[in-house]
Specification:
Length: about 300
């Protein structure tokens, strides 16, 4: 079986894997493992799909992708017919679209954060009760993080100060600081850009939803190192009951008004269940294999 056929099979397998992983619940027990597995699947899909198209385009050279590209450049694609040229254009086009959407997503998020930081400088205040945090004089419940390379901002509303007791508030702040330290915004960027490329495909939306939930669970776990699980769980329930507004573009909030993800987070906080050792080991072995194998197939000759 040629490298091209293997790459095509891997591209299809990653779609099936994403479908299964979007419905999986074991990842809730080990959200960081789940996030890494999602990243490996996404990378593998992109590399394998582009590689399958390139491999099809370079079939006349019978040297695989790595060996066929120099030959194609040397004879200016003289051996290619219409089908092979179409495959080459599809590979180049898909690569360009994915990179352009990713760069566009980065630019939009950076601009949104810059604007929001400027607004915060005008309307927020410091409060000795919550040092290192910006407070908005708004009666609604709000708590979110505006990530940054040098200075992330944790923002809460005056309504949050009234809604939560001191222990619950400390747990929420620990959650938001976890988002900032682990740069969860960078994890989300490829998935949000992928949804912009394929907005009509429901599976892409489910993938993004699954990764967003795992990110929140990972932040919960880090916050739990410093605060009790019950404090964070009760804070989440209070936020959900208060129906908070969505976090601003480019920010990461502690909770949304969607009851299902909130209850999933609360349940795992109050009744933690570690992932099986065999599952953890298998996932740790699968992640590098999923990410690396498609790249190695580029060198496989026809």
């Amino acid at each position: 079986m040629t490298g091209t056929a293997l790459l095509a099979l891997i591209a299809l397998a990653t779609i099936g894997g994403a479908h299964a992983l979007s419905r999986a619940r074991w990842t809730w027990r080990a959200p960081r493992l789940g996030i890494a597995l999602w990243q490996a699947l996404g990378l593998s899909w992109g590399v394998a799909t582009i590689g399958a198209l390139l491999g099809l385009a370079l079939l006349p050279y019978r040297k695989g992708i790595a060996g066929g590209l120099p030959g194609m450049l040397a004879d200016q694609a003289a051996r290619m017919d219409g089908v092979h040229l179409a495959a080459l254009l599809a590979a180049v086009g898909l690569t360009g679209v994915l990179l352009a959407m990713l760069m566009g997503a980065v630019v939009r998020v950076v601009r949104a954060r810059r604007r929001h930081r400027a607004v915060l400088a005008l309307v927020s205040r410091r409060d000795s009760a919550v040092p290192g945090t910006l407070v908005l004089d708004h009666p609604g419940a709000a708590a979110y993080c505006v990530p940054g390379v040098r200075s992330a901002k944790v923002v809460i509303s005056a309504g949050t100060l009234e809604l939560l007791d001191p222990d619950e508030l400390a747990a929420v702040l620990a959650h938001e600081r976890a988002h900032a330290r682990e740069r969860h915004d960078l994890v989300l960027l490829p998935f949000t850009s992928l949804r912009q490329v394929f907005p009509q495909i429901r599976l892409v939306g489910r993938c993004l939803d699954a990764v967003e939930l795992l990110i929140e669970m990972a932040a919960d776990d880090r916050a739990r190192r410093h605060r009790s699980a019950r404090e964070l769980a009760t804070a989440l329930l209070r936020f959900a009951a208060a129906r908070p507004a969505a976090a601003p573009r480019g920010a990461l909030g502690v909770a949304t008004a969607d009851d299902i993800p909130v209850m999933a987070r609360v349940n795992r906080l109050l009744e933690p269940r570690p992932v099986r050792r065999s599952t953890r080991l298998a996932t740790l072995l699968a992640i590098p294999a999923i990410a690396i194998v498609p790249v190695l197939l580029y060198a496989l000759p026809h």
